[in-house]
Amino acid sequence: MEKIMKKVLVAIALAAAIPASAQTAFTVNGQLVSAAEQKELMNLLAEQGIKDEGKQAEAARNILVREKVIGQEARKLKLQQTPEIKTLLAERETQILANELVRRNAAAHPVTDKQIQDAYADMKKQYSPNEIKVRHILVKSEDEAKSLISQIKNGADMGKLATEKSLDKGSAPNGGEIPFTNIRSIIIPGFAETAMGMNKGDVLPIPFHSSLGYHVIKLEDKREVPFPELDKIKDQVESVVARQNAANYLSNLVKNAKVADVQSAQKPAPKKTK
Question: Would you say the pTM of this structure is higher than 0.90?
Fold first, then answer.
């Protein structure tokens, strides 16, 4: 009896020495999930902001159970052997590895202040301070556009006409209004330049033609918005530099790879005997 009590006391003492967050292995349909595997996932969850160890453990267990069950069913159906799935898995693996390579490269070569300042200077150089606010109606034919211009000149409500007639489903519900937009963001060639040359409140006297059709344009307003100071957008600039560094890093890996065709060895044709 005394020996049994000693064993119980030792077991209790050992249990007390083990942290509450310590994991125990478990099985899912007979497949072992180790404590180490759970702990590794818990560490990743902690990095993602889940600080409570109880929640980490619960989330890790749920994720791993789901992962194992799905993997088991997929193997049962031999999904991994199908060409489509093989391709998708290879692409996913490549993306995961690329992300990790980028992460490690960024840790080894963090963005510098000079890179941020240079990027900011380039962005500022390419920036246009001009923004326009326009109202427009998009139609298919030039004749219809001319008719609408005539109606507007005679007092018709352009907003109402835009809602009824415009093919631009994005602006039509708003009476054809396009809110203040930087002219560099307007992708229709010549549209922004045409509007910038107009006076506030003017309706373009002739339809503007684009690949989309014919536009009736009214300039509601225009303004200049100065480029923000670096300290206001430093985080955004740093993110841009980081993405560019990542793209350059991966691009250089491919660029510096030694790629060569392999010539198949061909046996010489046997000599003809006389």
Answer: no
d(CA 194, CA 199): 11
Q: pLDDT tens, 120-140?
A: 999 999 999 999 999 999 999
The CATH number assigned to the domain with range 129-224 reads 3.10.50.40
C-alpha to C-alpha distance for 208 and 92, rounded to whole angstroms: 47
Contacts of residue 123, Cβ cutoff 8 Å, sequence gap at least 6: 227, 237, 240
pLDDT tens for each residue of 216-234? 999 999 999 999 999 999 9
Torsional sign, CA 185, 189, 195, 198: positive
Give the helix/strand (H/E) hosting 221.
strand 213-224
Element holding 184 (H helix, E strand): none
Q: How far from 75 is each of 26, 27, 28, 40, 123, CA to CA, in Å? A: 20, 17, 14, 24, 51
150 contact partners, CB below 8 Å, separation of at least 6: none
How far is Cα 19 from Cα 24, in angstroms, rounded to an integer? 12
* Contact of 117 with 239, CB cutoff 8 Å: no
Please give the backbone phi and psi of residue 176, each rounded to the nearest 5 degrees, phi first. 80, 5
What is the C-alpha to C-alpha distance for residues 203 and 67, in angstroms, rounded to an integer? 61
Which residues are within 8 A (CB) of 166 and not within 5 positions of it... i.e. 6 or more apart?
136, 137, 138, 139, 172, 176
Q: Are 248 and 130 a contacting pair, CB within 8 Å?
A: no
Least Cα distance to 168 among 208, 204, 135, 193 occurs for: 135
